[in-house]
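=== RUN LOG ===
request id: a7f3
mode: sequence -> structure
chains: 1
length: 111
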Amino acid sequence: MSENLPPDRAVSELMASMIARVTHRAPADPITYRRARRRVLKDPQTGALAPDCLRACPEIQDVWRYVKSREPPLSTYAARRRYLREQFAPLLELDRTTTPVRYGSTPRRTR
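=== RESULT ===
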C-alpha cells in the first residue's frame, strides 16, 4: 500500500498518476493516489517541498481542473507533462540528494 511506501517512491507514483490523468493515458487508481498523496504530505521533508498542485488536488480527478486552470493555458500533453515535472522537480531533487539510512529513519545527505 502507498502509505507504507518510502516517501520518494510515493512522489514518483504521484507524479506518474498526475501525468497520466492530464495526458489521458491509463486512468490512475484514486485510492492509490490518495494514499501516496497522504504519505508525501505527512512526511516532514517531502511535505515541505510538495507542490501547490499536490496540495490543491486531494482527488485524482481534481488534477485535470487544476492543470486546465493554469495561465498561460497548458493546451498540449507536452506542456502539461513539462508543467507537472517542473512542479515536482524539488521533490525529485530531494530524492537524488538524500540516501535513507533505513526506512523510517532520518535521511542523510550525500555529497
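=== NOTES ===
The longest strand covers residues 98-99.
Residues 2-100 form one domain.
=== END ===
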